[in-house]
Design the sequence.
């Protein structure tokens, strides 16, 4: 059954990854594209609040906006689309969004904004920086994953962050969000060399080993395990602060 799919990104309206997604999804679904009018990489989850966000129609079901990916999703859902989308996909980003990069990524923010609006969402990135990367396999995988989302849905407040290796994928795995550490040999290195923590491969390790990494991200950042340890602070924090 045809669905209404909204596509956005942070690389801008003319990006190859966005075009690859549109080419795949337009065959079967009512596909709308609302993307920034220029590159907005690493804009994080910023919103434009000091001026109106302006949209411009480029073609049927295709618009640009002079704002961030989160702005684009808001504008699409509130003003441009005929109804709420069945799925929002942000990407395909040129370059991976692994580990703590999800906090900087405009690609991930576009999907996260959709989740804030109560919509299922996927962020997808290809681990290639130089021009000429083949976005086709990543776009086909996005369609395959979308079918599962349409069939099973996603939990509330959850998006899927997908990272596709530059080489032919060996398969797809569920992976945890990795972390960065400061290393001796290089200023920044991915802390994914241990590979497995519990039952979950780190996203960077998965991609480095040729697998597509699928990481479920929750919008609730509360560190619940710390509650018990911090309970003892509450009584002290209720006491009046002595004058200096």
Sequence:
């Amino acid at each position: 059954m045809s669905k209404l799919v909204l596509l956005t990104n942070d690389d801008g309206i003319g990006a190859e990854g966005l075009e690859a997604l549109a080419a795949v999804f337009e065959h079967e679904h009512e596909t709308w594209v609302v993307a920034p009018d220029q590159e907005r990489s690493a804009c994080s989850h910023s919103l434009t609040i000091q001026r109106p966000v302006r949209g411009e129609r480029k073609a049927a079901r295709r618009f640009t906006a002079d704002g961030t990916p989160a702005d684009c999703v808001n504008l699409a859902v509130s003003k441009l689309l005929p109804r709420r989308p069945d799925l929002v996909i942000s990407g395909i980003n040129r370059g991976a969004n692994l580990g703590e990069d999800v906090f900087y990524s405009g690609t991930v923010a576009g999907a996260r904004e959709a989740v804030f609006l109560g919509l299922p969402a996927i962020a997808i990135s290809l681990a290639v920086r130089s021009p000429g990367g083949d976005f086709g396999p990543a776009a086909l995988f996005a369609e395959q994953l979308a079918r599962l989302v349409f069939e099973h849905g996603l939990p509330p407040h959850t998006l899927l962050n997908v990272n596709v290796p530059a080489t032919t994928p060996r398969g797809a795995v569920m992976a945890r969000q990795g972390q960065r550490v400061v290393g001796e040999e290089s200023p920044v290195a991915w802390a994914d060399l241990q590979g497995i923590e519990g039952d979950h491969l780190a996203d960077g390790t998965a991609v480095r080993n040729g697998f597509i990494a699928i990481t479920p991200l929750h919008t609730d950042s509360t560190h619940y395990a710390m509650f018990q340890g911090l309970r003892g602070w509450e009584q002290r924090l209720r006491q009046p602060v002595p004058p200096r």
